């Protein structure tokens, strides 16, 4: 993480928000380095959208300090608005206007001047592969096209900090890849991106840092690799065709966890070649036949489930996690 | 640019947006312009003969209408009587459209985007207000044109016409702001289109269609003191050249109060309106 020493683009401390009795955000602290991609990962209802809405000045927080692009959110909301671009979860385009008119509307509201506005609109239509549909009303656009236009509108004033709330929700795999490519291009040009997602693959693919949000609290924060290390989920899964062979193997490979019905064993570790070889060697020496083998490396799914999945057992892993991150 | 220049330029941008909506989807405009014209024709040709004959008996003198004998005479007298009432109904019809288009805007995502941008806070609403003002001008011009075509001959001079324009503009402005607020009190477009319905009804419960002194006690009391009656009477006085006494002061006062309260209410609702 080379950006650790550059000043943060977004800095949040002690952010709280409740609706009546329901606590939505219960003290959030986070920092997003300039020019990086930060993912807020969490299940539905975790508070992701509320966080984006607060950071983008749509709703106010109950408590906490927020700094976005050198500006204090509560004291200078308009300066924050001038620095950011937001693409929300729900389509924020004017369906009665054409694609081009939507972009020019944004340029006018950014006070860009007529010629410059038109130039930028044409550039973005080209860049987002919307040139052919520029003069069609948005109501006729496909979901993926609307999403692209939505993002293009966000980019009209060249904001340096961009919030994307579940940018790929509801997109087909191809459109999702296109969206990822756009995000990468933006980051390459020095833009800071704050995105929320419930797709682990997406967070892993795009982000420099990931924070896992659950029930209004950050339960873990780090790079994808750091988060994966938090959960020792790697194992080798072995399947046997014969009950006697299965029983022998279970003895040899103890303390493996066994599934007697499926005749399968799960041996911990196993991400690397050496431990895989050692398991296979031991089975070979005993002359045991293996029907099937899969190697399971820990992915963010394991992290996600371990951190957010078990409501009862959650408090302890969370404490460990926080320690791990503090180190 | 300073803050005021930004407000003006953002409001102009929002007005352009409203005009585009109107041009691209003219059905709402056609309805709000067409309905009052249909009302005018209905009242004059279907009801006018009979209603006009009754005018002389009660209150025609106050309204300045000339009592005439026979159905045709009654009809032309009634045309003169009903036009100010229809003009106010025209405004009421236009503002139905305001509530609908504000509600449609608020339920869509585009307004959430506007809120995250560094633009004048009021401009989204002033865009709607200006757009509706344009619709009101179109609708009123249409109604007056049809009225003139079927024989309406107002005796108003240039100054009186200026007064008519002023009263119509002020009443439109006040009721449009009221409906901007009403368009935001609900999250559903259907409800928003129903809430301003009483505004269509109120002129009937005033002096729009028949003079108030032909009504029974409590209704008459309501009819005389509700805001539409002084507005209608002021227009009637200006158009026919008769004096409408202090009605114009009441009319202006009602409009100013409705506009001010609605503006504050609408801005509050806009700031507080929950995001989707």
Features:
heterodimer; A: 327 residues; alpha/beta; Rossmann fold; Alpha-Beta Plaits; 4-stranded antiparallel beta sheet; 39% helix; disordered N terminus; B: mainly alpha; 12 helices; elongated
Task: Please trace the helix and strand order of chain B, writing H or E for each element.
Answer: HHHHHHHHHHHH
Total DSSP E strands of chain A: 14
Taking pLDDT < 50 over at least 5 consecutive residues as the criterion, the unreliable ranges of chain B are 58-69
Largest interface: A-B, 29 and 24 residues
Short account of what is shown:
Chain A has 327 residues and is of the alpha/beta class.
Descriptive account of the structure:
The complex is a heterodimer of chains A (327) and B (276). Chain A is α/β, with parallel strands linked by helices and 327 residues long. Chain A folds into two domains: 227 residues, Rossmann fold; 63 residues, Alpha-Beta Plaits (2-Layer Sandwich). In chain A, the strands form three sheets. In chain A, strands 6-7-8-3-9-10 form a six-stranded mixed beta sheet, with helices on both faces. A four-stranded antiparallel beta sheet of chain A has the order 2-1-4-5, covered by helices on one side. In chain A, strand 1 and strand 2 form a beta hairpin. In chain A, helix 3 crosses helix 4 and helix 3 packs parallel to helix 5. The longest helix of chain A has 16 residues. Chain A is elongated, with a radius of gyration of 24 Å. Chain B has 276 residues and is mainly alpha-helical. Chain B has one domain. Helix content of chain B is 76%, strand content 0%. Chain B contains twelve helices and no strands. In chain B, helix 1 crosses helix 6. Chain B starts with a helix and ends with a helix. At the A-B interface, helix 2 and helix 3 of A face helix 1 and helix 5 of B.
């Amino acid at each position: 993480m080379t950006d650790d020493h550059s000043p943060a683009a977004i800095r949040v401390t002690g952010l709280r928000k409740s609706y009546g009795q329901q606590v939505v955000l219960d003290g959030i602290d986070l920092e997003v380095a300039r020019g990086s991609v930060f993912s807020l990962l969490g299940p539905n209802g975790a508070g992701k959208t509320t966080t984006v809405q607060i950071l983008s000045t749509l709703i106010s927080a109950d408590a906490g300090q927020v700094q976005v692009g050198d500006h204090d959110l509560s004291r200078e909301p308009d300066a924050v608005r001038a620095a950011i671009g937001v693409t929300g979860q729900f389509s924020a385009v004017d369906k009665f206007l054409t694609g081009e008119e939507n972009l020019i509307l944004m340029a006018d509201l950014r006070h860009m001047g007529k010629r410059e506005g038109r130039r930028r609109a044409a550039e973005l239509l080209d860049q987002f592969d919307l040139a052919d549909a520029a003069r069609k009303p948005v109501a006729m656009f496909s979901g993926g096209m609307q999403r692209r236009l939505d993002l293009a509108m966000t980019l009209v004033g060249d904001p340096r900090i961009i919030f994307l709330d579940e940018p790929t929700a509801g997109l087909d795999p191809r459109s999702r890849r296109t969206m990822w490519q756009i995000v990468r291009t933006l980051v390459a040009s020095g833009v800071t991106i704050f995105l929320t997602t419930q797709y682990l693959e997406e967070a892993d693919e795009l982000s420099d840092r990931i924070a896992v949000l659950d029930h209004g609290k950050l339960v873990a924060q780090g790079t994808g690799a750091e988060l994966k290390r938090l959960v020792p989920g790697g194992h080798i899964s072995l399947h046997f065709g014969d009950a006697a062979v299965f029983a022998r193997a279970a003895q040899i490979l103890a303390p493996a966890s066994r599934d007697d019905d499926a005749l399968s064993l799960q041996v911990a570790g196993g991400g690397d070649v050496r431990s895989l070889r050692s398991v296979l060697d031991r089975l070979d020496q005993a002359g045991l036949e293996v029907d099937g083998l899969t190697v399971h490396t820990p992915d963010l799914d394991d992290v996600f489930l371990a951190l957010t999945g078990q409501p009862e057992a959650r408090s302890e892993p969370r404490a460990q996690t926080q320690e791990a991150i503090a180190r | 640019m300073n803050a005021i220049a930004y407000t003006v330029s953002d409001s102009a941008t929002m007005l352009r947006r409203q005009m585009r909506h109107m041009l691209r989807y003219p059905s709402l405009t056609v309805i709000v312009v067409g309905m009052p014209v249909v009302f005018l024709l209905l009242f004059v040709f279907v009801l006018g003969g009979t209603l006009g004959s009754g005018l002389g008996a009660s209150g025609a003198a106050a309204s300045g209408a000339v009592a005439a004998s026979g159905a045709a005479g009654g009809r032309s007298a009634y045309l003169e009587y009903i036009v100010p009432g229809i003009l106010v109904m025209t405004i009421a019809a236009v503002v139905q459209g305001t509530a609908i288009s504000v509600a449609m805007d608020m339920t869509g995502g585009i307004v959430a985007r506007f809120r995250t941008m560094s633009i004048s806070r009021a401009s989204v609403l002033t865009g709607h207000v200006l757009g509706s003002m344009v619709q009101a001008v179109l609708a009123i011009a249409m109604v007056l044109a049809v009225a003139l075509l079927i024989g309406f001959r107002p005796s108003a001079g240039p100054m009186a016409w200026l007064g008519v324009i002023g009263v119509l503009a002020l009443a439109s402005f006040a009721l449009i702001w009221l409906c901007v607020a009403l368009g935001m009190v609900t999250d559903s477009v259907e409800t928003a289109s129903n809430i301003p319905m009483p505004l269509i009804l109120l002129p009937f419960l005033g002096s729009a269609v028949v003079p108030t002194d032909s009504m029974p006690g409590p209704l008459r009391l309501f009819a005389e003191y509700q805001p539409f009656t002084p507005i209608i009477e002021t227009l009637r006085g200006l158009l026919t050249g008769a004096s409408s006494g202090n009605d114009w002061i009441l009319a202006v006062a009602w409009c100013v109060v409705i506009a001010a309260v609605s503006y504050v209410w609408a801005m509050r609702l806009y700031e507080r309106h929950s995001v989707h």
